[in-house]
Amino acid sequence: MASYDLIVIGAGPGGYVCAIRAAQLGLKVACVEGRDTLGGTCLNVGCIPSKALLHASHQLHEAEHNFAKMGLKGKSPSVDWTQMLAYKDETIEANTKGIEFLFKKNKVDWIKGWASIPAAGQVKVGDEVHEAKNIVVASGSEPSSLPGVEVDEKTIVSSTGALTLGKIPKKLVVIGAGVIGLELGSVYKRLGADVTVVEFLDVITPGMDGEIQKSFKRLLEKQGLKFIMGAAVQGATTKGGKATVTYKLRKDDSEATLEADTVLLATGRRPFTEGLGLADVGVEMTERGQIKTDGHYATSTKGIYAIGDAITGPMLAHKAEDEGMAVAEIIAGQAGHVNYGVIPGVIYTHPEVANVGQTEEELKEEGRAYKVGKFSFMGNGRAKANFAADGFVKILADKTTDRILGAHIIGPMAGDLIHEICVAMEFGAAAEDLARTCHAHPTYSEAVREAALACGDGAIHA
Ligand code: FAD
Ligand code: NAI
């Protein structure tokens, strides 16, 4: 039996970051992980592999659509799917091995196996029970199920199966127009599949700024993705390696079916807490199956904390990481804190979509007086040169104080551009502060400055 200041359960972005930060702060730390590799959902079957496939398929798109326009002539590359999957797997390995290295460097013990908590202060892995002054549960999430849709990870797949398909499907039906559906739907569309997305609501990416939702859907349709909106999927069946999806249109209750080689179920994720024995040690859960925590990540049981996808809030790797750092600092006696008002969200399609802070719809509902500064990438020289002029930057600022309340970007490198606004928001900046900051020319970030200028006397290149 070993004894630790802290045992972290789960080595995803929440858990591994927490373990490393706690070790840096002088605690004796172990991290338990049941998978064969570190990094959790994000590195193994989430962020990293999906971005590798998005990158590779985007390169193909560029070669097919834009190379010749720039005088780069020749045969378009053909797709070697086995090699593309190998590239994705090598990317995963490089990243998961990187975490192993960081654990060694920071003297974090990796306890291999599945953990349970027999009592506060104890973590059991296999037959061994380890003592821990503090336990952080960072057990993450798993794909949600949908009644009538049985995932076999071959014909009907979750995001995990969609990252290792045996071949590129001719016809792919995606259930759910959320982040996973649109990112992976884009990958297979670019690789030649006929992709239809079936969405329950009348909008894609629920919760996002309305103007962005509309523009995003239009651009995806231009790329050839098809959408069936307001449609509740009733079930999916498979026969001879093919699938049939049945859905009901909400407006008139009419039923219809779609045939597909592959169906991707992407209707959300739910916390994964199975086998931990949380109820037996008195850890309370929310109605939605999340671990209940207070403002300092403490559960209802003393000495047990929880973070990441397993608790409330957006299911994002960087949110989990920030909570991991904060809880490590709290356990070490410092004042860890996460500002939930400034957590960016990014969709890594092309163009990318990024947001931070409030949407226009939220500000309206709140009755807040606000102004909008918008700038189209059509007015950005760099974007025009790079065939990336679709999209815009939209900054929302308080009408009286000019303080930035939110920003929504659809366009090239949106996921990187958003951070200038995140930093500005952390400093309580006004739109004018961004507008008066010199931005290098020619860069995409000039579009952010122009949107900030548009909150005041006006953009220059509009
Ligand atoms: P996880 O990453 O889920 O890690 C939890 C770990 O705990 C797992 O490895 C699990 O094996 C382990 N575990 C669970 N129970 C036990 C136990 N009892 N004993 C031992 N080990 C245990 N987010 C982004 O921000 N950007 C993206 O681009 C992005 N892309 C995504 C793409 C896909 C396809 C998916 C599915 C998700 C994506 N996400 C993305 C979401 C992101 O992966 C999660 O928000 C993030 O991984 C959550 O981190 P976590 O540490 O809370 O949990
Ligand atoms: P999601 O919550 O983003 O989207 C699910 C969609 O499915 C919603 O639009 C919903 O209305 C729809 N839906 C639900 N039931 C339906 C039904 N019966 N028929 C048709 N449509 C239905 O969930 P998703 O895409 O599965 O992603 C899960 C989580 O993973 C997200 O919370 C996200 O934060 C995270 N993620 C983040 C990424 C990123 O940051 N780039 C990438 C991928 C995932």
Automatic annotation (TrEMBL):
Disulphide-bridged cysteine pairs: 42-47
SUPFAM superfamilies documented for this protein: FAD/NAD(P)-binding domain, FAD/NAD-linked reductases, dimerisation (C-terminal) domain
GO biological-process terms attached to the record: 2-oxoglutarate metabolic process
Domain FAD/NAD(P)-binding: 4-324
EC class name: oxidoreductase
InterPro entries assigned to the protein according to its UniProt record, in alphabetical order: Class-I_Pyr_Nuc-Dis_Oxidored, FAD/NAD-bd_sf, FAD/NAD-binding_dom, FAD/NAD-linked_Rdtase_dimer_sf, Lipoamide_DH, Pyr_nuc-diS_OxRdtase, Pyr_nucl-diS_OxRdtase_dimer, Pyr_OxRdtase_I_AS
Catalytic activity line of the entry: N(6)-[(R)-dihydrolipoyl]-L-lysyl-[protein] + NAD(+) = N(6)-[(R)-lipoyl]-L-lysyl-[protein] + NADH + H(+)
Pfam families membership: Pyr_redox_2 (PF07992), Pyr_redox_dim (PF02852)
Record keywords, A-Z: Disulfide bond, FAD, Flavoprotein, NAD, Nucleotide-binding, Oxidoreductase, Redox-active center
Names of required cofactors: FAD
Residue sites binding FAD per the record: 51, 309, 315-318
GO molecular function: dihydrolipoyl dehydrogenase (NADH) activity; flavin adenine dinucleotide binding
Tree of life domain: Bacteria
Domain Pyridine nucleotide-disulphide oxidoreductase dimerisation: 343-452
Binding site for NAD(+): 176-183, 199, 268
Record's GO cellular component terms: cytoplasm
Active site residues per record: 441
EC number(s) on file: 1.8.1.4
Protein family: Belongs to the class-I pyridine nucleotide-disulfide oxidoreductase family.
Note, other: The active site is a redox-active disulfide bond.
PANTHER family from the UniProt entry: DIHYDROLIPOYL DEHYDROGENASE, MITOCHONDRIAL (PTHR22912:SF151), DISULFIDE OXIDOREDUCTASE (PTHR22912)
NCBIfam families: lipoamide_DH
Protein name: Dihydrolipoyl dehydrogenase
Origin species: Flavimaricola marinus
Phylogenetic classification of the source organism: Bacteria, Pseudomonadati, Pseudomonadota, Alphaproteobacteria, Rhodobacterales
Gene from which the chain derives: lpd3
